[in-house]
Write a structure and sequence with these properties.
Blueprint (H helix, E strand, L loop, with lengths): L6 H52 L3 H84 L1
Helix pairs in contact: 1-2
């Protein structure tokens, strides 16, 4: 019966890899959410500019222009906030992606070691079976010779 000597370590490394996948997927989700919010506010800003431009051609009271400018300033602050969030989320996502790749490499190393160890085990088993067959043949020959 084959028993891999680093089996427990391989299981630990696989569990670490699974945790890294989970953390990476969460960072991707956070990045996508922040990017979607940023897109929404950029779209609002664009729509507000288009609305304001259409209203200016028709004539717009000064207090409405001020109102739009204040609203636009608020949107721009929000956009800046979400831009920072997107940059931070992207940085975390890249960091966790690198960690995931490292964990993946570690697991692959242990799997490769296991594969080589199993091949060595099979070769050793064949060798032992061959020796056993030789011993049986020698015993049969000796029994016939007596």
């Amino acid at each position: 019966m084959y028993q891999y000597k680093f089996d427990k370590i391989l299981h630990i490394k696989e569990r670490e890899k699974d945790e890294a996948i989970s953390v990476y997927n969460e960072s991707v989700k956070n990045f996508e959410e922040a990017a979607e919010k940023l897109y929404e506010f950029l779209k609002k800003k664009e729509d507000l500019h288009a609305f304001q431009a259409s209203k200016l051609t028709d004539g717009l009271p000064v207090h409405e222009i001020r109102h739009h400018q204040h609203f636009l300033a608020g949107i721009e602050k929000t956009i800046e906030h979400y831009q920072k969030m997107v940059v931070n989320a992207r940085g975390k996502m890249v960091f966790y992606q690198e960690k995931l790749m490292e964990k993946n490499v570690e697991v692959k190393k242990y799997e490769k070691i296991k594969e080589k160890d199993f091949l060595s085990y099979k070769e050793n088993l064949k060798y032992l079976e061959g020796r056993q067959m030789d011993d049986i043949s020698i015993q049969q020959f000796m029994n016939r010779g007596s």
